[in-house]
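Deviation from plan, reported transparently: 4-nitrophenyl phosphate complex.
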Amino acid sequence: MSQAPSVLFVCLGNICRSPLAEAALRREAEAVGLDVVVDSAGTGAWHIGKGPDPRSCDEAQRHGIDIRAYRARQVSPSDFHRFDRILALDAANLADLERIALPGAPARLSLLLDHVPGLSGQDVADPYYGGPEGFEETWRQVSEAARHLVAELQR
Ligand code: 4NP
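Because the crystal trials were delayed, the predicted structure below was used instead.
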């Protein structure tokens, strides 16, 4: 029996973008009956233990998903052993992850939008300081990425 693949999404605060990415992948995987371990974390420590930003909760709710029970945590070196894939929401998150990655740990690091044809190398912009439209755009990007990720994981 093969083990379920595991995916960790990482942004800065783990309250805006990565919780939405987590919710989107859970939904897409469930839709096709794919067994996958999904989690999210932040590179920063400011919001540890807090729920997602209310604007992320509202955006998820608009898509019928309740993420209010999610709790922010900080990424740790052990994540590089616990997850097959660690996906950074933007290039700064990726650079931070590369700094703390343990040599020889199995996790494969990449940028989330590298998994979307035509968007490789691009960031999911941080919506924290903007209005609700930024969260809509985040949802569009992470849900598209989640569809491609599920297809990759099924291969
Ligand atoms: P996230 O957004 O990285 O998508 O969760 C942010 C959340 C909080 C802060 C920055 C970005 N902050 O500076 O507190």
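The two ends are 16 Å apart (CA to CA). We consider this an acceptable substitute for the interim report.
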